[in-house]
Amino acid sequence: MPIKMHNMKYQFYTCDVFTDVRFGGNPLAVLPYAEGLSSQQMQQIATEFNYSESTFVLPGKDEYTKNVRIFTPTHEVPFAGHPNIGTAFILSTIGDFANFANELNIVFEEKAGPVPISIRKTPSDIWCELKAPETLSIGKPISVDLIASALSLTPKDIATDVHQPIVASVGLPFIMVELKDRTALENARSYMPAIDEIEAKGIRPDILIYIHSEDKFDIRARVFAPLDNVPEDPATGSANCALVAMLAHYKAEIQGEASWRIAQGVEMKRPSVLDARIKKQANDIIDVWIAGTCKMVSEGFIEV
How far apart are CA 295 and CA 19, in angstroms? Predict the structure, then answer.
């Protein structure tokens, strides 16, 4: 007789991150008890959800430390912003941290290093803030002509007064591109032949574009990561951490502490709000943080 194989069931939750309204922000799938899953199974599950990222939580060295692995639909990443914020929100919401009354500090161990996260209850939400695991690193510049082509824009749409289009990272690298106005921001689209040309140069073509804003936001941003099966990302904490660290690096007038409120996802009708801040001493970026709130969306079980 054939032997019947029993599938294992794993609990999952989904939430929307960097938003205070359901179906805004950036969706995330979290498996809070992922022991027993192989790397291949984690990747298959992340591909099945097909969100920008999914996270898999494993036990840490103590109650307030967790090992967290983060997968896009195509590969594992060492660090990402909205998965950390959303995972902290899920774990605190389902009661995974004992003695969480109003405030709590936890640590997620990830491939990029330890990620400290502060969690605080407000009258209406749970607010989470992470500290980036690495200090700012700045990589290769990309030609204005090539990045304009990759964004379906013209070179005159690219602003270069502060910096050229350039790679920056605090744990995950992104190409940073300032645009001259909101029209260019709204018109940008990925153009795959130029995206492929950037990758052929050995640069991961995950691109953050932004403008300085003069409304209730300091910055308006968009992020494209088409080679990760993410044509556009509604909220990208890791990219915006790198952005504000880079801006503080290039702008000598920024000293001590500075903060920015960032809008992302507006153009794709998933508006997100990210609160970023930095600490700068003697022209060095010491720390970078990003924060926001989340909304629970669904829960269930997935069979593997």
Answer: 7
Burial class (CB in 10 A: 0-12, 13-18, 19+), 7: exposed
For 69, the token pair is 């692995």
Question: Cα–Cα distance between 175 and 135 in angstroms, integer?
Answer: 16
Q: Which of 66, 101, 98, 96 is nearest to 84 (CA)?
A: 66
Contact 34, 58 (CB under 8 A): yes
If one counts every other C-beta atom within 10 angstroms of the C-beta of residue 283, the result is 10
Section 25-29 average pLDDT: 98
For all residues of the chain together, what is the average pLDDT?
95
Which 8-state DSSP code applies to residue 253? Answer: T
For residue 103, the tally of other CB atoms under 10 A from its CB is 10
pLDDT of 4 > 80? The answer is no
User: What are the DSSP calls for 279-301, one per residue?
Assistant: EEETTEEEEEEEEEEEEEEEEEE
Query: Alpha-carbon distance 37 to 25, whole Å?
Result: 28
Helical H segments across the chain, by residue range: 39-49, 81-93, 144-150, 182-187, 192-200, 237-250
The pTM of the whole model exceeds 0.85: yes
| Cα(99)–Cα(64) distance, integer angstroms | 11
Cβ of 245: how many Cβ atoms within 10 Å?
Answer: 26
Joined together, the tokens standing for residue 207 give 């691109």
- Residues annotated as catalytic are 53
Q: What token pair was written down for 260?
A: 């920015």
Contact (CB, 8 A) for 52 and 77: no
Give residue 37's identity as a one-letter amino acid code.
Answer: L
pLDDT in tens, 164-202: 999 999 999 999 999 999 999 999 999 999 999 999 999
226, 191, 189: which is closest to 74 by C-alpha? 226
Residue 113 carries which side chain, given as an amino acid letter? G
